[in-house]
Amino acid sequence: MTPFLDLRAQYRAIGPDLERAVISTMRAGTFVLGEPVERFEADFARYCGTSFAVAVNSGTSAIHLALLAAGIGPGDEVITVSATFVATTAAIVNAGATPVFVDIDPVTWTMRPDLIAAKVTSRTKAIMPVHLHGRLADMAAITALAQRFGLVVIEDAAQAHGAERAGVRAGAFGDIGCFSFYPGKNLGACGEGGAITTNRADIAAAVRSLRDWGQEGKYNHVRQGFNFRMDAIQGAILGVKLPRLDEWNGARRRIANGYGRALSSRVSVPSGPIGMDHACHVYAIRVPDRDAIRAGLDEAGIATGIHYPCPVHLQPAYRWLGYGAGDLPQSEALARETLSLPLYPELPSDDVDAVITALTTLTAERLARTA
Ligand SMILES: *Cc1c(COP(=O)(O)O)cnc(C)c1O
């Protein structure tokens, strides 16, 4: 069986380093925040090219606190996308704000900037693009629009650690970047984790306070806060992994481009060649007969994923937002056709070949049937 993702492969490669970092953190008796988290925050800010990084307990918390730190809450609208993991919308709603969806570009699958202006109202406070699958959204156009309308830009960079365009990395384009360190992300903890990045000292200070009961100084609670702190052990683990991120992303891109070269004549693949502006968190093809192709791959021993089978605006939990089928045609088409192939830095080349062979056979059979 070719797994979709094998986290044990990474552990085999760097396990001893991780274990040393965990044991020394345990022996130091530091369990929440503390020196390992502070060191990781400094390293991650330097990596992203921002003045500050503030670590929290998940990517969802990072988005939630980014919004609160920017002063966004009930009555405010945030322009975002529906073609994303549910957490983007959940965090906006958790902050008390209202998500307003725009459709995605059919080629990049990220937010269409030309649809934003029509959605801006007197209540709009922010634009939250998602770097879906690790591909950077059109940040030049989005930040220009934000400037024109006086809006904050908050990047959902939970899938895009290390993606860069013209020397600027994910998390450094907008006012605030939000990252997840869920184990399967390009930079993953051994448990939950997240962070915000920013150049604004006021935002960094507010998130530091909000994640820790709204404190400014011990037992001085100046804000309605949360327990969204990062564990010391996760900070230590992320500190060990961060120096390897570029190498891992490079391996992801090489595999993705291999898929693209082999498959582009048979199925719709991400527009390529894939470069530095794509962190290749997910490599998804588009096929009209997605469920049949998926079943065929499963029969051939190849596990796949679907990111994501239903756009957020059609999820039962968000029916109250008032959207219906047909409102976001490109987002809905992506959900119907998208199929994610196995992709992780250590994916053996034999497995890559097996995926390509199986897809080649399946699409040839489809052609023969329709001929
Ligand atoms: C993973 C993810 C999140 C949420 O991160 P968690 O750490 O799981 O809370 C948010 N947005 C996107 C696009 C994600 O992929």
From TrEMBL:
<comment type="similarity">
    <text>Belongs to the DegT/DnrJ/EryC1 family.</text>
</comment>
<keyword id="KW-0663">Pyridoxal phosphate</keyword>
<protein>
    <submittedName>
        <fullName>dTDP-4-amino-4,6-dideoxygalactose transaminase</fullName>
    </submittedName>
</protein>
<dbReference type="InterPro" id="IPR015424">
    <property type="entry name" value="PyrdxlP-dep_Trfase"/>
</dbReference>
<dbReference type="InterPro" id="IPR015421">
    <property type="entry name" value="PyrdxlP-dep_Trfase_major"/>
</dbReference>
<dbReference type="Pfam" id="PF01041">
    <property type="entry name" value="DegT_DnrJ_EryC1"/>
</dbReference>
<dbReference type="InterPro" id="IPR000653">
    <property type="entry name" value="DegT/StrS_aminotransferase"/>
</dbReference>
<dbReference type="InterPro" id="IPR015422">
    <property type="entry name" value="PyrdxlP-dep_Trfase_small"/>
</dbReference>
